[in-house]
Write the structure tokens for this entry.
Amino acid sequence: MGIVWLVMAAIVALLGMLRLRSAEGMKLQEVKGGELYKRAFVLAKMTKTPLNRVYVVPSGRGHLTNAYGGAHTIAVTDNYGKFLTSAELDFVIGHELGHAKAKHGRKKLLITATVIAGIALVSFVMSPILFPFRPLFDVLVVFVPILTFYSLSRRFEYAADAAGVELTRDPEAAIHALVNLHRITEAPMHCDKLTELFMTHPALTRRASAIGVKGGISPDRTREAVGEDELARHVR
């Protein structure tokens, strides 16, 4: 019965994600030409990343502003031209190609599923001797898979940022692209580490710091690109 409930929970989570995207107006529209299409295939060839399709996603009633990478595909919301220059668009494409090439989505799901399966197995064979520690174990059952998923997601975002910077060799454009994305979506540029534990993406200030280190630019130039004095505490 436990296995049945785990499978049902996974199905409900997947359906919920799809329904949420539908409610936000997320619809993939394949493109066969234009700047995004051309740049995507040029950069994919440079990085030797298999790419079959490029999609434009209407920002929709959910006011989506983002980019997505999947198996042999990438997608960018149709308002990218309002906040990205050509160099910044190259970084965004490179970032998503980094996800696609490294198969981050598949790895994230497989590792998280393995953690859940491992916890389930321990639960099924749990010795009566350990029953006094059941409340603590229940807390771990809830939080370990969640924290694992978020941790992997943030780690893969750093890796994709690094791939984008390595491809474009323009760390300042990369930082500007992220700053513009945060401004247009009104996302916070910084958060404390406890809050970040439950986020799929690292805080902008930490991502900018990592990009600056990867790109070999000075902390002062990184802070200037972000325009946030609080970045100083994260740059070494």
Notes: The CA atoms of residues 68 and 75 lie 5 Å apart. Confidence is low (pLDDT under 50) at residues 229-236. Residues 134-168 form the longest helix (35 residues). The two ends are 51 Å apart (CA to CA).
